[in-house]
Amino acid sequence: MKIWLWVAMFLGVGFTSDANAFEEKIALIEVKQSAGYQVGDAAASFRLKNTDGSMVSLNDFNNAKGVIVIFTSNHCPFAKAYEDRIIALNNKFASQGFPVIAINPSDPGTHQDDTFEKMKERAASKGYGYPYLVDDSQQVAKAFGAGRTPQVYILQKSGAKFTVRYIGMIDDNPQDPAGVTKLYADEAVSNLLTGKPVVTTITKPVGCAIKWKN
């Protein structure tokens, strides 16, 4: 309790202040402590294998307005709970220039459900309309600073660069889609499409910790 009180005082947030602002500041601290991208950074291109056997690069989306990069996995119950919502995001925004790119960085040695063969089976059974890429070396996840699945990075195409505009959760209710009150990813993309700034730029992702290879 004393630790949180100190953090609140340090951040200049009183107990009567808006709880969402406090949570966002805590999430911002955690993101800054990571070695990955921060909001406003330009993401480097990557090239990973898709479940259809093709190689997919971020540069393949140079004609898009941006991309919704989601680190996810087969085994994680949180990722499974969000699967239909990820599909819905792509169905809504791909035609408007913001397609989903799903990336699985999970070590298949830890969870057999995350083998490439299982990824192919999952993508086919659910009819993914977006790439489902395997980050076998885990270097892309490390570059982004991803720590959990699912974790979202919304990138806006700015000139020749893909600039990070949002990092965090898809929405505020992993357990119950009907109980969602904050559509973080949806709202961020909708704002970018209408030329407005993203209001909530960082949230703390809730999901399974990525198991890193030794």
Describe the model.
This is Peroxiredoxin. With 214 residues, the protein is an alpha+beta fold. The protein has 2 domains: 1-33, no CATH class; 37-209, Glutaredoxin, CATH 3.40.30.10. The chain has 6 helices and 10 strands; from the N terminus they run ααββββαβαβαβββαβ. A hairpin with a 2-residue loop joins strand 8 and strand 9 (161-168). The chain is globular and about 45 Å long. The model is unreliable at 1-17 and 19-33 (pLDDT under 50).
What tags apply to this protein structure?
single chain, 214 residues, alpha+beta, Glutaredoxin, 2 domains, eight-stranded mixed β-sheet, two-stranded antiparallel ribbon, 6 helices, 10 strands, 32% helix, 20% strand, disordered N terminus
Short synopsis of the structure:
By secondary structure, the chain is of the alpha+beta class.
Strand order, main sheet: write it out. Answer: 1-9-8-4-5-6-2-3
From the N-terminal CA to the C-terminal CA, the straight-line distance is 35 Å
| CATH homology superfamily of the largest domain | Glutaredoxin
Per CATH, what is the topology of the largest domain?
Glutaredoxin
Biggest sheet character:
8 strands, mixed
Number of domains: 2
Please tell me the overall pLDDT: 88
Provide the low-confidence segments as ranges.
1-17, 19-33
Structural class: alpha+beta
- What is the CATH class designation of the largest domain? Alpha Beta
Number of strands: 10
Helix segment tally:
6
Strand content: 15-25%
**Which descriptor suits the 3D outline?**
globular
Write the element-wise H/E pattern from the N-terminal end onward: HHEEEEHEHEHEEEHE
The percentage helix is 25-40%
